[in-house]
Sequence to fold (144 residues):
Amino acid sequence: MIHVSDKEIQKSYRKHKSIWISAEKDQTAPNYSHKMVLFYAVECGLKSLYMKEFRLRMTNQENTEGRNITEFGHNLNEILNVLKMFNVKKKEYQLPQVEAEDKNQISPEDMHQAWRYGKKLNDEKELQFVNSLKKILTELEGRV
Fold:
């Protein structure tokens, strides 16, 4: 595991977000790589917001409760719950599981892997997941 500064994670958020926005403007259906970049944009944005909220300079620095951002891994729902800046009771801010074509359930924190490896997913469930990521990305605007 590598550790990065708050400035580096903010830069990654902006870069991933700009790639996603460019892909959306392209007017073609986003492919797995675009969706993976969207996931990483949201992850970097949430982690950056967490670091800002707890005044952390490095990802391995602990907050007042003894937690650092690396402990969350890719579990975006857990970061959302800790931040409490989003109304986490609203379903659109809680990332759902996604059913794969083979009927296996993909947990939200593993979706980046499903896209990275080209796992065939249930189109409707995948769209719900992508739309949830997009809503979170919109909410991050101006906060990161």
